[in-house]
From TrEMBL:
This is SSD domain-containing protein. It comes from the Eukaryota. Residues 432-623 form the NPC1 middle luminal domain. NCBIfam families: 2A060601. Residues 1-35 form the signal peptide. GO terms for cellular component: endomembrane system; membrane. Residues 58-287 form the Niemann-Pick C1 N-terminal domain. Its main location: membrane. It comes from Corymbia citriodora subsp. variegata. The chain crosses the membrane at residues 299-318, 391-409, 634-652, 672-694, 706-726, 774-800, 849-873, 1129-1148, 1154-1175, 1187-1207, 1219-1245, 1257-1280. GO terms for biological process: cholesterol metabolic process; cholesterol transport. Keywords: Cholesterol metabolism, Disulfide bond, Glycoprotein, Lipid metabolism, Membrane, Signal, Steroid metabolism, Sterol metabolism, Transmembrane, Transmembrane helix, Transport. The lineage of its organism: Eukaryota, Viridiplantae, Streptophyta, Embryophyta, Tracheophyta. It holds the Pfam family NPC1_N.
Amino acid sequence: MRRRSSRRGAMAAPPRLVALATLLFQVLFAVCAIGADRPETRLLLASDATSGERHTEEYCAMYDICGARSDGKVLNCPYGSPSVKPDDLLSSKIQSLCPTITGNVCCTEAQFNTLRAQVQQAIPFLVGCPACLRNFLNLFCELTCSPNQSRFINVTAISKVNNNLTVDGIDFYITDAFGEGLYDSCKDVKFGTMNTRALEFIGAGAQNFREWFAFIGRRAGVNVPGSPYAITFRPNVTESSGMEPMNVSTYSCSDISLGCSCGDCPSSAVCSNSAPPASPKEGSCSVRIGSLKAKCIDLSLTVLYIILVSGFFGWGYFHRRRERNTAMRKPSSNVTDDQYQNIGRQKNENLPMEMLEDAPHIRNGVQLSFVQGYLSKFYRKYGTWVARNPIFVLFTSLAAVLLLCLGLIRFKVETRPEKLWVGPGSRAAAEKQFFDNHLAPFYRIEQLLLATVPDGMHEKPPSILTDDNIKLLFEIQKKIDGIRANYSGSMISLTDICMKPLGQDCATQSVLQYFKMDPENYDNNGGVDHVSYCFQHYTSADACMSAFKAPLDPSTALGGFSGNNYSEASAFIVTYPVNNALDKEGNETGKAIAWEKAFIQLAQDELLQMVQSKNLTLSFSSESSIEEELKRESTADAITILISYLVMFAYISLTLGDTPRLSSFYISSKVLLGLSGVVLVMLSVLGSVGFFSILGVKSTLIIMEVIPFLVLAVGVDNMCILVHAVKRQPLELPLEGRISNALVEVGPSITLASLSEVLAFAVGSFIPMPACRVFSMFAALAVLLDFLLQVTAFVALIVFDFLRAEDKRVDCFPCIKVSSSYADSDKGIGRKKIGLLARYMKEVHAPILSLWGVKFLVVSVFIAFAVASIALCTRIEPGLEQKIVLPRDSYLQGYFNNVSEYLRIGPPLYFVVKNYNYSSESRQTNQLCSISHCDSNSLLNEIAKASLVPESSYIAKPAASWLDDFLVWISPEAFGCCRKFTNESYCPPDDQPPCCPSGQASCAADGLCKDCTTCFRHSDLQNDRPSTSQFKEKLPWFLSALPSADCSKGGHGAYTTSVELLGYENGVIQASSFRTYHTPLNKQVDYVNSMRAAREFSSRVSDSLKIEIFPYSVFYMFFEQYLDIWKTALINLTIAVGAVFVVCLVMTCSFWSSAIILLVLAMIVIDILGVMAILKIQLNAVSVVNLIMSVGIAVEFCVHITHAFSVSSGDKDQRMKEALVTMGASVFSGITLTKLVGVLVLCFSRTEVFVVYYFQMYLALVLLGFLHGLVFLPVVLSIFGPPSRCVLVEKQEGRPSIQSLFRT
């Protein structure tokens, strides 16, 4: 998305904008003696050096025209003479343009006509602010025609041209007050088409009036824009000279009568009431304690932690004292504590916990909940039936899942980013569709970045602007122009697909545009010096105009500079805008994609070597690059994922088997059983994919890569628990009894864990992002199918495997039978020694956790980390870096790094107005525009105000306004723009191609249009606004008008796609846009905040103006999800944890047990968020899905221990020890280590997204789940655990039946 910061601004600027400073001043001063060719002679004149030189009122310093330069610029005479009274016609003409000039004048009609012809070039830039325009015109009117000209003009140099003396230098005495007044009135006037100040065009970006005057007075050579003679502006004169600085009154732009807009004059009184919002202070609430500054939330959580730990310590102290006192006073009872303790000690770890024989006359039964009791009865009968019918169960379950797999014939993979990451109900998607359908799709971007390499580690990179580097850029351009891509038999070149604002030349953004993209112009124009010149005059010098007839802003073609110091740029940025198409399958896009592939291939095969040989770096990208690299990613980690599966398979096989013995390993191993379990996992994934494929849901590459691993990690736990439960049963029982007892022992907890996982995964389907929603749906069904296959097909496979072992058949080769020595060596499998892990749990782990000091330490540490994680959560940033999603060896990795480092301008931002009513009865025109007579709170004025606080608004500059330019274009003051023939047809400006062949009635001898008048007089307009019919008639003229020197406001090219003309005849324009830019966005959070700020701004303005307005930028569609990502995450996590709580409550009928599980799950999720903050993992749909899945996976660390604790007897410490001995080893080996070995392999992935979002987050989940499940949970249970479900049953007649030991 950052790559979209390639700019549209300069390419949308009006073509053929001639240097207003040049085109304007070359004649404005030509009127007053615009220089000469290289003078044959030059002499400095004293005040009395020229005959008749006088500095008095009614006297001229220059009068009439005495020659012309070789480039056609007229030259004034340097002769002083009395001022002349003009005739009435000339006087009225002068008054219309220069109302301050009355009576006599110092200009002839030819001089005035030259002045009038040239100021028309400036008027379109300044007419939006009448005060500025009036001051500007006064400057040149006084210089040209003032009857007191000699009082402030002194000719200091003359030249001889064709034997005539002409002016070659003057001193212009002018007060600082006038200079400041002129500059202040014009400094904020903007030229909307280019999103910049008008002074950039007519003053080279001057920062004060002295810089502006210095620019005006600079001498320029022949055919070079600028003044051809030196003009020295001086503020003071000597008293003896008789001169006086010119000091005509200036108008303030805040003068309400002159109607400057707020955008052009922020200091206006009408604007002061709507000042831009203050920039928000960094951070939120904070507290300073001495020299330490802490956030309020951090301080609050610290206080809360101290209170909790102190309360727990106090409660523990008094609780221990009460226990001791109670133990000392406690009387004996019929069933004593000693009996409970004896019962606990007499339990055999190899027996199921529900089938324990305790004291001689007392048995230990378990009072189960209704649901658990029902499940126990079901699993007892079901286990017996499966053991008796394993073939039927196996083939029936396999047939069902294979039937689902038939849906794979309709299997399709979605790879389009917009379909993966943007929800169908997305507001941004709807706005993009509106923009594309009603205006124009955003163009495709192909981009090259060439950069220099720093000489040292901390040294600044050298400038890229050298002769060799520019010549290298020409060579690269030649190769790119030579690309020919094959598309359906046609050879496609760049010119076939590029964007052409005027339909002629590609709008390529490159410094080569300063040479018209022609290498022959490089040496002819002065090489690097010409580039440096164009940096300062790109808006004004015709020699710097691009091949596509528009100014090229250096910030769009250079990178790595600060401020406006373009000469220190360390990178060339070359951008090729390519036409886009609405239909992805359209031919135009197909041609572009074919060319883009050839472009990338050329860059990799040839351009990279060319650039590196010059000790430069090259990065590149095309519009289709991300999609192509995502496709390549699908195979990048295939080997890594395969190794992960193999490692997990090997561990499963090792874990399921007995302790290895050389004499019987080939019998007791479970390799074939483990392989069968892995196959069942694969079948469950394929069945899930097949089912959704039948429904027409497309899969994604991440589903095929991650879900098998996920389901395997989840499913392996149940495999280990089931096999270990069967192995714990005594061999004296028949196999069907062992299978039945094992299912009764672990079936309810497996069901509880699996249902919790399925519900937790299913909650992810509520996430609006399609890729994550589909992932959650597929994962939930896959986990459900895996559970069903485990309790059906896998139980049947366990039956077959144990029958194989009992029949002394070799694992993996069951047809081979060995001698009976195996039976002797493995005799008494049910009475074998306790395992190493179980011994550790019984003799080390559980006793240590029973110590009160350890309990206090465990609770304090875990609560501390949870509280710290809550504080750290506020530091998690939303977003998903594109380079993380891509393979590490992708060429786009370097491109995204360079984009962040070098780009100095942000993505284009469009404010789109829907249903703009331009009729005379509506006020919406003034509610939108920003020139004179527009509302102070208009849309464009509000955008201009917001651009004053870019740190909070993320708006870099005022918007380019087609509406402002249209209103200026039809204005009578802009007499060179909207013109018509006598037959009411459009008349183009004089400097554009002839409107007709020379000799026709409407054309003069030189082909210029004659008999053309302005479209309107002031009396034709209503308060300077067109009527409905006038607006409707002239808008198409404006959008078709070519910009030029005589009228820079033509809308063709700049606004061709900014207005929808379809159906506009009824007085309503359905869609129009106003373009500005975001500030440079370097981080994902910048993109999110800029989008939020733009939406808040447009919502506020829409409500204020009662006009429907929305912001649009090309990256919004992909970042919309992050606006409410925290809300989405918290809601879904709450639902997931709540679903698990409800399932636990229904299954156990114990609110206390369910609450403890809820607490541990919440702490695990909070701690994972804390780890995310520490590892700087961003919050996005991928991490949200992982968090939701962590709820389901974390259930396994809690449920089995809690269930074992509930059905154990004795005091809470004894029950905690028994639960750890019974299930602790299974949780550690079957859950923790199984997931751990699979996760560790992912750290070798070539794709960063696997390392960050699967290795790091899953590793954190496994470690935190292990610590909470085997450390924190046992401690909590030993302190706050629920009452035991064990009941003592007296032995009446013989041994009670197994069923009598379970009460529901």
